[in-house]
Amino acid sequence: MRTELVISADSDRADIALLEDGRLQELIQEKGDDSFSVGDVYLGTVKKLATSLNAAFVDVGYEKDAFLHYHDLGPQINSWGTFLRRTLNGKQQSNITNFESTSNIEKEGNIGDVLKQGDQILVQITKEPISTKGPRITAEVSIAGRFVVLVPFSNRVSVSQKIRERDEKDRLKKLVRSIKPKGFGVIIRTVAKGQSAEELQVDLDNLMRKWKTLHKSIKRSKKPVRIFREMNRASAFLRDVFNESFASITIDNQDLFEEVKEYLDGIHPNASKIVKFYNGPTPLFQSTNVDRQIKGAFGQSVSMSKGAYLIIEHTEAMHVVDVNSGNRTNKAENQEANALQVNLLAAEEVARQLRLRDMGGLVVVDFIDMNSAENRRLIFDKMTEDMKRDRARHKILPISRFGLMEMTRQRVRPETKIVTREQNPDSLVEAPIQVIDTIASKLGALELKEVFVHVHPFIEAYITKGFFKSVKKQWQKRFSKRIVVVPRDAFTMLEWRIMDKDNKVL
After folding, report:
1. d(CA 83, CA 98)
2. 240 shares a domain with 222
3. What CA–CA distance (Å, rounded) separates 13 from 27?
4. Which residue, 58, 150, 216, 337, could crosslink 332 as a Cys pair with Cβ 3.0–4.6 Å?
5. Is 419 a member of any domain?
6. In terms of Cα–Cα distance, which of 437, 438, 444 is closest to 481?
7. Alpha-carbon 87 to chain mean position
8. Are residues 67 and 87 in the same domain?
9. Is 20 exposed, middle or buried (0-12, 13-18, 19+ CB in 10 A)?
10. For the chain, how many structural domains are there in total?
């Protein structure tokens, strides 16, 4: 399998597309000011206690208070409180080797026995704000690296459950215990499997530098403040998914290009060779066919091969996927065999759609009815196998008697939503032909000798039709400038933009 990463970024956002064998599998959209992202650490203030929920609401600067349950306090919450107070008073160094930890809190205690209104507390975002809900947080702050996760005020060393080999688990535990700093616990990630002591040591050293940065950033403040930010999404994504299958990483932003290159040099020798800088006249997502795939993958109806398709509906409570055979040519022996073929295709596409849209919570898939218990088992096995590539925690139940498959998927950030339908322009906008005159008026006001007109492919076809008498040729003659018309799959019908050779909007 050939894996490619395409990153298009500017000053206020970054779009990250993961392609496997040329097919779009994941899309991450990061805004420039991406506050309250998973992994960010805040100095917050307890606003109120909800004893009926055994939880507290903490002000971290978001419009809605963050939710902190008792079970998310962590056993060493009292040690964290002491550490915070001493740090704010200038009496605590980043070195916690000789720090006297307090006893663990009770597993099933009451939030009121640990926190009170007005307390300042260090918290970490575990779930981003979604819909009307504020962020979900934990008081057990950790710092994630490529191979391990550093957990202050703990001595425990644990291994990812996805590493099933007993010998490898024991090897990693023994190795990490010999190199971990005192006063810190370590969670060994799945990607650490087979790694040497040198690689793990480098990762731990990097995490200790981040810990010192976090400690240095803690300053007395009456307002909630972010004191530590998780790395940008591009680097964090690479940290979690980078492996030997990556063939290329293409980036169109110089600063991000240098940052990613530097990061890869630090985690994998010679990996930076696959990072390429793109500065072509055509937008990166357009030239790599990502825009076209986005348009086809994010609609309510998702097409599959031979006429089969999915209908995807979203509600506040759940996501519902309906599988339809459509006008698919039936070459199977009977209806049961045909249903099996369509359902196998659908299982693969559903697994892709969950990753692509980052759909979380409860998901219900209505497969085409099958009478055979063995066939239903095949669909369950297929879905389980295809979901193995999904990094989000999930649980899948077998198909019920009604042909429904229920599953849950970890939800840590809002679902990726892209509008693919366009409104009928009747009475909402000017006559479409007026767009041509508007573009011409803009071109006439520009003094540049070369401009790039970005429009929807249909508009591009109209502007460029005819070799000698095209609208484009008329514009070039009228305005005495070179005009390049660029079709943009991502644009709506009447959307347009004029840019210079450096892709700056004019």
Report:
1. 12
2. no
3. 13
4. 337
5. no
6. 444
7. 33
8. yes
9. middle
10. 4
Q: What type of residue is 142?
A: S
User: One-letter amino acid identity for 97?
Assistant: T
E strand intervals along 232-330: 246-251, 275-277, 301-303, 309-314, 318-324
357, two tokens: 């849209």
Same domain, 196 and 317: no
Q: Three-state DSSP class for 32?
A: coil
Phi, psi of 416 (to 5 degrees): -75, 120
Record the tokens describing residue 180, joined without a space. 């971990």
The two structure tokens encoding residue 306: 């031979």
Give the separation between CA 502 and CA 452, rounded to whole angstroms.
Answer: 10
Take residue 251 and report the two structure tokens written for it: 């980036």
d(CA 294, CA 26): 10
Per-residue pLDDT of the chain (506 residues; tens, 9 = 90+): 788 889 988 766 788 888 988 889 988 877 655 677 888 899 999 999 998 999 999 999 888 999 999 999 999 999 999 999 999 988 888 888 888 888 889 988 999 999 999 999 999 998 888 777 889 999 999 998 888 999 999 889 999 988 889 999 999 999 999 999 898 999 999 888 888 898 899 889 989 999 999 999 988 777 888 888 876 667 777 777 777 778 899 998 888 888 888 888 777 767 788 889 998 888 898 888 888 888 778 888 888 877 788 999 988 888 999 998 876 655 556 788 888 999 999 999 999 999 888 888 899 999 999 888 999 999 999 999 999 888 888 999 999 888 899 999 987 666 666 656 555 444 444 556 678 878 888 888 888 889 999 998 888 898 988 877 888 988 988 888 899 999 988 888 888 899 888 888 88
Dihedral angle sign, alpha carbons of residues 288, 291, 296, 300? positive
Task: Determine, yes or no, domain membership for 83.
Answer: yes
Q: Considering the entire predicted model, what is its pTM?
A: 0.69
β-bridge partners, 322: 311, 366
Q: What is the DSSP letter of 57?
A: E
Residue 444 three-state SS: helix
Closest C-alpha to 472, from 434, 504, 440: 440
Tokens of 397: 């139940």
Residue 463: give its domain's CATH number. 3.40.1260.20
User: Which residues neighbour 92 within 8 Å (Cβ) at sequence distance 6 or greater?
Assistant: 83, 86, 215
CA distance 106 to 102: 12
Position 428 in a domain:
no
The rounded Cα 125 to chain-centroid distance in angstroms is: 15
Look up residue 67 and give its amino acid.
F
Q: Which amino acid is at 124?
A: Q
Domain of residue 309 covers 299-409
Write out the two tokens for 33: 């000011």
Same domain, 59 and 16: no
In a shared domain, residues 245 and 307:
no
Q: Whole-angstrom distance between the N-terminal and C-terminal Cα of the chain?
A: 41
